[in-house]
Every structure is written in structure tokens, then in C-alpha cells.
Amino acid sequence: MTTWLRDPDNPIIRPESGSWKNDRCTSSTATFKDGTCYFYHDGGLGSWWNGVPGFNWVGLLTCPEDRFDGKTFTSFKCNPILTHGRFCDIDRLGMISPRVVLVDGRFFLYYCTVTYDRFVPGTQPRWIKNIGLAISDDGISFEKCTDPVLNIDSEASAGVPNVIHHDGRWHMLYTLGPSDRSEGVSIHLTVSDDPRRFHGPTERVFGTEDPDAWDGNSIVTPAVCFDEASGWYYMLYGGCSRHWDYPAFYGLARSRDLRAWERHPANPVIDRGGPDDWDGGAMWITEFIKHEGRYYAWYEGRSAGRDRSEEYSPGAVKQIGLLILDGDPWKASDNGSRL
């Protein structure tokens, strides 16, 4: 029986005391160029989302492509390669959810920008997220774009960009939800001829259907992989039955055009870990690729903390794990097996 397997060395990337990733290691993304795998992930220190001083940055790991196994990398000696912006910048608190795409041989690193909309001392700040972009010729030295590549209403929170070249145009799938959490998160699509600007109309292409289902409240953190052999785009997506962004399960969907998506009938196909596991609180799959016939999916795993039924329960740790699949994702899920 073919199914997704957790790597036995998980978590493959862990926080390092006294470093730029002192408190957490979260989202990751990978690409290949000139015989090298470039693997980026974000990490940070402090709890900026609770008003505690702290930031999120992006670091680089590499390995020769002919020795790629999804988990054995060398850390760049000058990490982090991207840091938070100035007080007035769109990423004053840093960047999360990086996604790298090669455009004419250049590295386009999209990421979710984080800043405060307003801050009153002694209260929890209202922070906002948008989509930013940094560009590099060598994958190491990046220049940030000053403005967001996607304009979002100030009352909404955007994140987790997936940028794909399809049918001669650039398509961005991203998550969107109201900042006040009055509604759940869903997946939206916008299309552009210029990968530096996505200022056209957007459309909601994937969201909740049954409010009583495992994904009935929010759809979060999509990771999209194109299978050239079959012509399908496969998407792994997190589902929340009652939380806003704290998925315990992942489902599988597929599409030919990135607009019309078919859910797998056996969803969900992946579970978080057990109560005492390092990924027993929640999981967010942030990268999904096919390389040399094998599928790799990296995910941010969060331990249970005080109570794993509580969204973002205190006392938890975030680390990065690896899932591997040999075979067709759709047929693997047809087997009725779930990780």
C-alpha cells in the first residue's frame, strides 16, 4: 500500500539556541538551479503576534542536487539572508511563509509580510499581513520590492502565496480571511502578466463547503505541486473544523486550471501527530514538490503545548518535518490509508 510517510529523522530542522531561529522554525520552500537545491525557511525569536518584541527572518540551506534526499542540507554561514524591515516598511516584524519561484533564471522569493496596523502600549497589537517579494540573481543576495505585490484591503489578512506559471500567465493562489476572524479563511486566485505585480481582480476558488466537516470553518496553507506526466495540479490544504488557522488534518485536491478544484473523496489524507509527538498540536504543509519521481512535502509542526485542542496553546514549539510519497498522490489516497 502506498501512502505518505513521515521521515524517521523528523523534525529535520529545529530551533537553535542563541541563533536567528532561537524560538521556532516554521515555513519552508525549495527550488533547483544549476545542480544545487536551494532550501529556504523562516525562523525567529520573540512572540510579535502577542506584542512581545521579536522578529521573523529567512535563512538558506543548500545541497548538491545529485545528493538530494529532502533532509540533508548545509546551512549558509551568513544566515539569515533576509531580515525584517524598518519601522515604516511593510515587513517591519519580518517575513513568514516564503515561497521561491525561478523566473528567467532569477530567484523570486514571495513571502507574507508582517507589520502592525496600529499599536497601543499595554494592549495586544492589531497586526496585518500582505504579500511581499524579494529578487536575487544568485539565490543569496536579495533585493526587496518596496511595495506589496498584491494589494489587500486593510481589514483582511493575506498569506501563503503559491505563484505558478500556467497557460502563459502568472497565477497566484493565496489565503485570505478577515483580520477580525469573523469568517474563516479561504483560497483566492489572481492572475498577472508580470510576476512582480498582481493588481488585477481576485476570485475565491477554494473554500469551506460543509460546516460540519473536518474542514468546515477554514481552509488554510495550501501547497501546490504540478505533475507534468499527468497534467494535474495537486494541492495539499489544511482544514479546520472550528479554529481559524490551526489545522489538525490535511486534504488533497486536484485541478487542471488552478480554478476548478476536485476534492479527494477519502479526505483528509494526512493527520497531525499524536498528543505527545513534536507535531501533535497542528501542522501546516508549506512546500510540495515532485523530484525524480518522488513527492516531498515539508511542513511546520507544532507541539501540543498546554492543550492541543486549544488554538495556539502556550508552551508549544514549532519545527520543520518532512513527508515522502512514492507513487501517484490520488491513487495513494484511494487506498483509504491516512498518515
CATH-defined topology: Tachylectin-2, Chain A
Average pLDDT confidence is 92
The computed structural class is mainly beta
Tell me the name of the CATH homologous superfamily. Glycosyl hydrolase domain, family 43
Count of helix runs: 1
Strands, count: 21
- The CATH architecture can be given as 5 Propeller
Major β-sheet annotation: 5 strands, antiparallel
User: Would you list the SSEs in sequence order as H and E?
Assistant: EEEEEEEEEEEEEEEEEEEEEH
User: Could you list the spans in which at least 5 consecutive residues all have pLDDT below 50?
Assistant: none
Look at the structure and give the CATH class. Answer: Mainly Beta
Helix content: under 10%
Strand content: over 45%
Shape label = globular
Total domain units: 1
Q: Using only CA atoms, what is the Rg?
A: 19 Å
**End-to-end CA span:** 12 Å
Q: What does this protein look like?
A:
By secondary structure, this protein is mostly beta strands. It has one domain (8-334): 5 Propeller (Tachylectin-2, Chain A). Helices cover 2% and strands 48% of the residues. The protein has one helix at 329-334, and strands at residues 5-6, 24-33, 36-45, 55-64, 74-75, 94-103, 106-118, 126-136, 142-144, 156-166, 169-178, 186-192, 202-206, 218-227, 232-240, 249-255, 262-263, 270-271, 282-291, 294-302, 318-326. A hairpin with an 8-residue loop joins β15 (232-240) and β16 (249-255). The longest helix has 6 residues, at 329-334.
